[in-house]
């Protein structure tokens, strides 16, 4: 049971964690863990995750959970909820800091693998207590655990860490010095390139009030906030392709092309590749092209797995369009780089070898450079009258991600938040069925009961995503 929590394959649990840690050697957070080589095989790397979830009709709760970095699988079987807090009782800055301090305490206990001598306030337990009598003895047969990463969406990261540098500020990135003014330049000589902040730099640049209590969690640093990538490029490339085919067409004519030419191409690609096509036929609203000066973007009707297929399909589609219109080659190259990047991620195990890591990172960079060029050409041609390629801080994530992949050889597919988000949703459903006055307490109790009767979760999760 315990080994199952550590790794997918019980027989190689020790090997899996050993492999994980040996890949972390040389990374900044790892040097701060003080983990010895001989302890790799018995130390579980722990990911923390936090996310907001809607409860009842219009309230929100924050859920913290944790899991082993070496295990994938059903969210309810591989992750554990740590705590839940209602947004209405959150005091800005202090509540999440208090949680971080508790997490710091838990991690310091987990690091030793032994029952603690002191409580979370540093006070020794009363002499006759059960806690005092077991203090110092192993609770998991010598296994220990260390912090390995923090995962949250952009909003969660700002809330949990109080970052002054965040996507809505002028300095958009907590990891490097990218700003609103310069992040759209993806060339090697861009001002922010190679300016990753170290943990010490982060601590020194923060006022005491803004310093995240996550500094109490040994190993945490802004650099260890892991991120996925979300794609907005598909709609832009596809729209421009259709629009260049007839520069004088009306929006209604464009919509007709989307619903017919484009949609048929997508459907037949899905049939040829044995993929289940999405049932939402393309139209102006779903591709975010209701006006010429609004940036196209795939609507939220298209979910993660569908978008992923669409990356592959649109690369294939644009490949066929090469040479038909002025920008067709650039668009084809951009989407092709993105699709190859995605393919490397999909087809490789948890860690790339050095060569593949470098290639994967380079495809991400090549994509960004083509996209930057498309955006610049488009601006030069149409100005504000017709806009097509949005450059949001999200694209900047890919710069950091490429650097991270090259540096750590980690396959980001193993760090996505899908499973955590799934768990958060399920807890949200449990919370919504409780009485508002005792929601936090009752939810955690029911969660514990559900863990014991995992059958309940299993039947609920059966229809959910299995990634
Ligand atoms: Zn950055």
Strand order of the largest sheet: 3-2-1-4-5
**What is the domain tally?**
2
Write down the Rg.
Answer: 24 Å
Query: What's the shape?
Result: globular
Strand segment count? 5
Mean pLDDT: 89
Report the uncertain regions.
Answer: 456-467
Bound ligands: zinc ion
Which range best describes the helical content: under 10%, 10-25%, 25-40%, 40-55%, 55-70% or over 70%?
40-55%
Count every helix, treating DSSP H or I runs of 4 or more residues as helices.
Answer: 17
Which class best fits the helix and strand makeup? Answer: alpha/beta
The proportion of residues in beta strands is 5-15%
Q: What about the largest sheet?
A: 5 strands, mixed
Order of helices and strands: HHHEEHEHHEHHEHHHHHHHHH
| Beginning-to-end CA distance, first to last residue | 21 Å
